[in-house]
Structures are given as C-alpha cells and as structure tokens.
Design a protein that fits this description.
Helices cover about 40% and strands about 20% of the residues. It has about 350 residues and is of the alpha/beta class. It has three domains: about 5-40, no CATH class; about 55-170 and about 290-315, Rossmann fold (3-Layer(aba) Sandwich), CATH 3.40.50.2300; about 170-290 and about 325-350, Response regulator (Rossmann fold). The radius of gyration is 23 Å and the shape is elongated.
C-alpha cells in the first residue's frame, strides 16, 4: 500500500495516540517511515521537538468547575502545545473552592502538601492562599489584576520572587467599559455599578467610573453585593433607584462565578448590562469589553513549561494583555428592545446572534 494511504489510515484509526498504536498495526518497509514521522508529531513533545519529562502540577480556582471549563480547557491546550499531555507526561491536580471563600485556604493547603512542580492560581484570593500555604512551590498566575499594587510581585519585568505568569489590565479598562455601555444604551441617564465591596481593585474601578460619569453627565449608582442570595434584592434596589443600565465590575472571582445568575436576573429586569468577560455575554449578558481570559490561561502554560525546565520565576517577566475584545449579544439586545448602533456593531470583535 502506498505510504500516503498508510498515513491516512493511521491518522483515522489512532487519533492523538498514534505513537502507541501505529507500530503494532504494520510491519515491513513502511513501519520505519511511519514511526519516524509519528515520533515528530507525538503530543509528548514541544514545539522544538524535544521529549518533555513528566511533570506534576496543581490548579486552584475559586469558582465551580462548570463555570470555568472553557478556561481550564485553554490551559490544557496550552500545555499540550508545550508538549505535556495528561495521562502521558502530565498530571494535574484540579482543586475548586466552588465559589466559597472559606474553602480557598483549605484547598490551598491540600495542594501545598503534594510537592508539586508548579501551581497555577486563577485570581487574587487563590494566589494569596497559595503564597501562604506553599512556601517554596513556584506559582503561575493566570490573569491576576494589579499584582504590583497588591504586593504579589515587585515589577512586571522582574517579578522578584517565586510568582510570575499573566496579569490582567482591568484596572485600566473601567472607564472605557462605562463609555461603551453608554454608547449601546444612549438613553440610559442613570447607570448602576454592581461590585464586590471586599475587592480592593474595585475601589480603583469605581474612582475611574465616577470620573467617566461626570464627563458624560450621567447619574452613577453603586451597589455592593456580598451574598449570592442577595442578587434579587440588589437588582430590585437598582430598579427602585431608577437605574437604566448596569455595569458589573470585572476581575472578581465571586462575581465571575455568579455571572450567569446576574445576567439572567438583569435581563428579566430589562436592564442592559456590561461585563468585562466574554463568558458573561455567552451566558446572556448584553456586552463585554476586556481581555481574553482564554488566551491568558493558554499563555500560563508557557510559564509552567519554562519553570519546570529550570527558569526561576523571578527571571520571567509577567505578561500583560495587549488586545481587548468587544463582544455584543444581539439576541439579548433584541429581547431587551434595544437597537445597538451600527457603528458600535462594526467595532465589535464578535456579535452573538
């Protein structure tokens, strides 16, 4: 049989486990050719082609697993590109706090006792918990906000300790998000902001939003939320106060975990909404503007690879996003009776229809 046909059959029958299954299937002159090609394509090798040693890492998340499956898949995809495959040369210890702040230290201590090669943290609370629980394990942040201001690293270029990874830029985006919501709902004279009073970064956001509201001559209403069962109460207070639209502050694991419920309740209240993450728009929110969390998680794999290969975290600059995406859910807009300006639609990176 011609080599091209042998290759096609191998790909069809074996999928990603080519190296393990191809050799028993054929013997003869074609075997050497196929084995050499498949070795290069093996998922246990990185972009440079070198075989990667087995590693054992942890991932700690504040949210429930179902609320972040896409992000976890992005991390796994990034690790695969670096040459690590679960069940072959990669073991991942997944730990979730299920949206309960009290569980974060507990799951951090669980990971700390495993002598892992590296731990990926997914927000400020999980990063702080791992710093406290694991004295020596390298930590890779995935999209953590203002790590310098929060005292997690010394500088972006030279983190200076055992923490590196990717940082978000949400602290610079709040005013822009507010402006875009105003463009989408130009008749909204009063805009409410939903935030977590326990999040220190949100205080920075609120200051920038207040300045933007003054420049646009809009009334700003602020509403903290602390318990999941208070969502209905808070939204009812927004309506009573005369809110015409709502901005949900980003970069908060608590609000991220509640995004589906928040988007649903705001739609029922017929309040146009702005989030910082496309995941919220995919869950029914009106629009979002911010970085791609999926890309940040994908890039975290690069840091894991370099750390396990011997590069100290202190020598790896923390990466910040350079592209921000505008996502609009036209189905939600239609349900709200809102006509999104054509000019704004043309600027969107994605329109959900």
């Amino acid at each position: 049989m011609p080599r091209r046909q042998l290759w096609g059959q191998a790909m069809k029958r074996c999928g990603t486990k080519l190296v393990k299954c191809i050799i028993p299937m054929w013997s003869g002159p074609a075997t050497t050719f196929l084995a050499s090609v498949l070795f290069i394509a093996s998922p246990a090798t990185g972009n440079s082609g070198e075989v990667k040693k087995p590693i054992h890492i942890g991932v700690i998340s504040f949210s429930e697993p179902a609320r972040r499956s896409g992000l976890d898949q992005s991390l796994v995809r990034g690790l695969r590109e670096q040459g690590y495959v679960e069940g072959t040369n990669l073991t991942i210890e997944w730990r979730f706090a299920d949206g309960d702040p009290g569980r974060v230290p507990q799951v951090a201590r669980d990971l700390a006792g495993m002598k892992l090669d590296a731990i990926v943290t997914t927000c400020t609370p999980t990063t702080r918990a791992m710093v406290a629980a694991a004295a020596n394990t390298p930590i890779v942040m995935a999209s953590v906000s203002d790590p310098i201001g929060q005292g997690l690293i010394v500088s972006y270029r030279h983190p200076g300790g055992r923490i590196t990874g990717t940082a978000s830029q949400f602290e610079d985006m709040a005013a822009k998000m507010f402006q875009l919501l105003h463009e989408a709902a130009p008749n909204a004279a009063s805009i409410a902001v939903l935030f977590n009073a326990n999040n220190p970064v949100h205080k920075i956001f609120l200051g920038d939003i207040e300045n933007a509201a003054q420049l646009l001559s809009l009334k700003l209403l602020t509403f903290p939320i602390g318990q999941p069962d208070s969502i209905d109460t808070v939204i009812e207070r927004m309506r009573s106060a005369g809110a015409d639209a709502v901005m949900v502050l980003p970069d908060d694991p608590y609000l991220f975990n509640l995004r589906h419920r928040i988007a649903d309740k705001l739609n029922i209240a017929r309040l146009p909404s702005m989030f910082g993450l496309r995941e919220a728009v995919q869950d029914g929110g009106l629009m979002s503007y911010g970085e791609s969390l999926s890309r940040s998680y994908f890039r975290a794999a690069y840091y894991v690879d370099h750390i396990v290969s011997g590069t100290p975290p202190a020598d790896m600059p923390v990466e910040r996003p350079t592209k921000f995406e505008l996502v609009i859910n036209l189905n939600t807009a239609k349900a709200l009776g809102l006509n999104i300006p054509v000019a704004l639609q043309q600027r969107a990176d994605e329109l959900i229809e």
